[in-house]
Fold these 4 entries.
Entry 1:
Amino acid sequence: MANITPSAPSNAGALAPFAATTPGGDEIVYNGGDLMIEFNNGHASSITVQFVPTQSSKKVAGAGRVNIPTRSLAIAAGAHGVFRFGQEDVNAYVNAAGRIPITYTGGNAAMTMRAFRT
């Protein structure tokens, strides 16, 4: 399992390298703000990326308690996928260590990812 630290773009520019995923899953270090998480599937088959919430529900003004969904995306071979986590909803996916866990079906080094804090 790898810990991925999001890049922080600036007006002067920033490097945003891709990192290989780990078949057992990875975690993104969360230090506040909105996140964009990009995946590039270089594998020969589809890989599903999942973000499972660490909270089952939360209170939403005007709606009461709502269930927090698992975010899931099947990324075809050779395709790219992107997730956005807004600052207002990301905490439902952050674990006790301050990281956002990611799981994959069939993930390997041919699947790469990077994260941006905005």
Note: The chain is about 0% helix and 45% strand.
Entry 2:
Amino acid sequence: MKKCFELIIKDSITSCFMVHIPAENKAKALKYAEGNGEVVSCKEVEWRLGRDCVIDALVKSGFGQTEVDLIDRLLQEYHDYF
């Protein structure tokens, strides 16, 4: 199962943003973030994204049942992430 890393990236003199990246290790998370600015912080965090949360967000966003079913099926196939 992959871990989740929280990265804080400085992309200009006054602007930073945070991103959560699922990766096998810290080096792969940092590699993924290359080219987006200077990584100020990188720490492992608890993975909090669940299948039910994703399905609920899709339904609330107006996705049709067919799309929701397809995405749900993909989530079930890649259960190591969820």
Note: The chain has a mean pLDDT of 86.
Entry 3:
Amino acid sequence: MILRRLSLIGDMTHSPVAIIQAVRIYYSLGKLPGKAQMLIEPDESSPQNTQVLEGWNTPGDYGWEVIRVTPKQSEVVKIQSRR
């Protein structure tokens, strides 16, 4: 298991808002991702259908699947993605 730090987009001078624990996603050798991609799915249990980060891919390498997020504070961590 690998611990990764998540920072907000933009100003990177603040401390991390959460720690993400992730495990590798293994693909067949002929099916490695060709481009970087965030794996985002809607939270169907939420009335707002909030988008949730489930993992990410790195080009030419295996991906990562999020298994746990530990916020720095007890409040909910809100990350907005730019599309």
Note: The first strand starts at residue 2 and ends at 6.
Entry 4:
Amino acid sequence: MPRQTLTRITLFLPAPSTLRQHYLIDDVITDLVEFCKGATTSQQIPPVVSGYWLNLHGLVEEDQNVLIIADAEQDIDDANLNSFFENLKFIAQIDFNQDLIWITLHKVERVATDDPQP
């Protein structure tokens, strides 16, 4: 079975509460589509992904999030890929006023049987 090895990017951004934040999410999606040639997102309104974690005081906190998934053709160790996401994380944490933006990268194998030829 033919397979394509890709790097899967999973990104959680805070659900937008202002027009500026909607535009920021649109910018992130546009950047991902240009870098990865595509992206999949959850709805922004209403947000459909909730995040839960323990804060520094051991209390449960909750955030409403937008989930964005993209697959890059670059290897997970590619310098351009890592630079792109380090920059994206830094900017997103500032733009969304967050202590932490959650981005994960991992290798995936996509089934490529019967794909159209370029």
Note: The longest strand covers residues 60-72.
